[in-house]
Amino acid sequence: GGYENYSGTVTVIAGQTTSRDIAMSLEVSYGIVYGVVTDDRDRGVNKVEVWIGSVTTKTDSQGNYQLDGITAGSHEVYCYKKKYTCPTTTVTVIANTSTMHNIEIYK
Fold it and tell me: What's the confidence (pLDDT) of residue 33?
């Protein structure tokens, strides 16, 4: 990571001190987390809510999910499905990369 690029104009006058304040923003990098939510019989589970922070989705009929726009770094992954126990797991997201993260849930 680093800082976002900045571009601006400063007028310099001979014999005078010229200064300019600039705001530098940290560069934010994002990645994708995807995977399959399965039960203890290794079957994909439909309509499981999966989220990291404020980014949320539900699994499809085969248990697949994808979360886009996750900031790079380590995150806890949460899930919910009525009548199932969903463990909280951790994933490390790498900038500009898709990271597979499968989750097993239990009845």
Answer: 98
